[in-house]
Amino acid sequence: EIIDAQRNIILQYHSSSVFQKNYASRYMPDTQAAYRGLKPQTALMRAASGMSRTIDPRRPRKLNLAQQAEVDCHPEVRLLHRRLKSLLQIFQKQKRSIASTKGTLLYHRYRQAYQAHRNLRRRHEKALLTEVKERYKKEQPVIDIQRQLEGLPVVQQEALRAARYVFAERVQAIDALFTFATSSTEEEADIKVKEEQTSVSPPPSLSETLPVECEATQCIFCLGNEDLSAADRLRAFAARGGLKKHFHRKHLRHYRD
Fold first, then answer.
1. How far apart are CA 193 and CA 185, in angstroms?
2. Are the C-beta atoms of 80 and 71 separated by less than 8 Å?
3. Which of 10, 34, 169, 222, CA to CA, is 20 to 30 A from 216?
4. pLDDT in tens, 20-38
5. 28-36: long-range contacts at Cβ-Cβ below 8 A with a sequence spacing of 24 or more?
């Protein structure tokens, strides 16, 4: 077993506080259950002590295109997709829409095939996303420690990609807040000074905080309209259907001619 002094020498820490503050496990046993003689709630305690990992901006939130393609290539999903596609070809041959066959046996078979394909695909997506999150939870801390030992900085591109608005003040704040712990007290003091400077700097104007890239559910016309308020310009709809209704109601009706 490695004692604290040996660990500090290996990792080049000036004291054990660096390890305890940044890398020591936050998992705490269920002391109340032990005191009251009850069965410990292990899963609940692990979830409560691991909340910092769930708010990590680099943590996978959804599957990427390659992982979605992996789900689509699953044999069971491909089989149900072929069945659904064969039913759609029947509609095309009959030159009828799906809604017009409502109440018929063909429509019933199509709905069953559609729901079976959708539910199976969602189950495989959920299972793969859980696997990706577990892999990230185990591998990413090791990668971060290896980068620190090699003297490499935090990968700022990942943090900047998670941010909606990118401007000079935000880049400085991300650089200060997401810097790894160092083995020098002077460097830690410099980092704290940068954090204080970024926290007290005046907020930028709205023109400087506009998103670099428009989101899929944001209206580009409202975003560029300087007469609207900040909330109206930066409004993002819950779905593309809401954006479509807003576009027809607020903008397209003025250009009917």
1. 12
2. no
3. 169
4. 666 665 555 667 776 777 7
5. none
